Amino acid sequence: MAIKIENRLFQIETEHTSYQMKVDKYGVLTHLWYGAKTECSMDYLLDYPDVGFSGNIYEAENQRTYSLNTLPQEYSTSGVGDFRIPAITVTHDDGSRALDLRYSGHKISRGKYNIDGLPAVYATEEEAETLEIVMEDTATNIEVILMYGVLPKKDIITRSTVIINNGTTPITINKAHSLCLDLPEGNWQSIHFHGRHAMERQMERCELIHGIEEFSSSRGTSSHQQNPTILLCEKECTETSGFCVGAALMYSGGFQTQIEKDQLKQVRVVMGINPETFSWKLNASERFNTPEVILSCSMEGTAKLSQQFHKIIRHNVCRGKYQLSQRPILINNWEATYFDFDEKKILDIAKEASKIGIDMFVLDDGWFGKRDSDNSGLGDWYVNENKIKGGLATLISKINDLGMKFGIWFEPEMVSEDSNLYREHPEWAIKIPGRNPMRSRYQLVLDMSNPEVIEYLYNSISDILKNNNIEYVKWDMNRSISDWYSTCLPSSRQGEQPHRYILGLYELLERLITDFPHILFEGCSGGGGRFDAGMLYYSPQIWCSDNTDAHERTFIQYGTSFFYPISTVGSHVSAVPNHQTGRITSLDTRGIVAMAGSFGYELDLSTLTEEEKETMKEQVKKYRQYQLLIHNGDYYRLTNPHNSRIAAWQWNDNTNGNVLVQGVVFRAVANMVRDKIKLMGVDALAKYKLKGTGEIYSGMALMTGGILIPRTTGDDAAFELFFEKLANDEEK
Ligand code: GLA
Questions:
Q1: How confident is the model at residue 653 (pLDDT cuts 50, 70, 90)?
Q2: At what angle do helices 451-467 and 497-515 cross, to 10 degrees?
């Protein structure tokens, strides 16, 4: 049993971690511990200081030391004496805003709970358990159920919250976070991932300040600018040692992560839907489900934590035919042609691709409606026969005849004002009556909270998918959302639209992946602007960034790897000079960097030299050979590219112990000894043979002394080292 309850102490035990809460004599649910397995109750660590201006609950009478403001809380509320950040805030019908949640019951069940209409970690009955703790505000009969899913073998705990109005009058939920986690007083640092279009998930590690810090998105999407993941670690924590805890929100809309270091240096993290673009009217007997947070911690540094997240997302979030199987190596025509193509051009590229051994051709933006530039056509999901003469089916059969699969691009959530769809249904675009809406990339956003919009999109997309041999869909979303207003919601419910938009999106995706189970879906939002665990429930890979420059990609992929499995990272070799940065890197370097993901190409192959095409054939062969190791292996970040001359990463094959190291030396220097890198997580006592030289090293030597990386010349030079783990009798 992973969940144990004794004397109102709740203990959730995973293989290496323990999570503890306790209901105290007043019914307050205090948070005691998240960390190593201690085999004892951690309530002895609770302190009850008499801190000025920290009030006391009424029942505590004249005990000045009992304060909600100093005790660690499991799910913080506002208005009743905890002045730190609340996880939930509501407004009652009488206008008051207090919520005093006290324990009223619990339930344990086998298996993992699901959340209606929202993505959630799934698991077999044997693999997981569920704990529900029921909390109640007795003055109003508002019930809050704290849900915990436990996957003990994977060291994962999930959390989400259900809010039920058992009262007689409506309430408004202003904030309903999925996670509240109190950490004890200490030297905590935070690691978060900020960025911008074409430079997503830049890792930043910071000291906490006294006060509240926020990482959030109010853009209607999880966004390029901040990612809905957060890591808290001890100051001394490294990749391979020290304590850290991570949380990933399974949600693709606006989110908020807040961290507060309080007056006593205690830390609280809350995470969930961004209240700035959210409010929800909950009538009597209605319930509201928050999205889920995936939680994990490691006593052995951030590499282990990342591996735990990689495993849970790859095995218990991603789904479908391609979840664990080899992904097709694809060629995408976007950077090769942009909007300027016809059937002949596409076939020219496809022919070259088939000779190289590429598995699939992906036709990007521009194949539909009147779409010759980015200012028209979105919404008209039928083929543009001026460009694709003879229609899609003919083109696809020619591509299939080359031995290749075919994939296609959609941007379903958008509409161009210059489109038949907009002319017919202007009311389907999100805009506020009496105001001009913000345009972005000349486009408007469809109201995904409107069931008619979902129906239209389902029908038009499934028509194309039914009538053509399409085996891949790139699902794009190319702007941030503003001007929230829905023609199908009353004024009292307008604040619900951003969340209802995401529910509509998830419903549409669920219908399509159910009806077309053979199709590989790849998520995209101007590259990686909606790279989150929510989207990964519907698409096992996401285009990581519109930045295909191999040098900059090492930074983007470094940040992405903290939470997301390598198999989820769509990564392509593109042309030089690079279209985003103008930088020239070798084909070898572009190949090595793109291999740390789900691999493909995105350039005009018909303009390449024979020698370049030969190199690509070798890359395709190599990726096929290493793909399962890259996708299933234990991943290690060997350097931090933000403060190193080198970006290097490693996979350990957990079936045979072999090790693959790849990387890029950013700057060439004259007259220097070579750099060394230290391997991680190999077997200290085993021997490893380096491919190419045949030299043999001990695991201990590789981890402590490291290995000299091959001599490279020129900037951004790639290297690769493959070590075969020797069986005992081969070592002599
Ligand atoms: C976005 C995507 C690109 C490409 C273009 C097409 O920017 O990230 O890969 O599909 O849209 O318009």
A1: very high
A2: 20
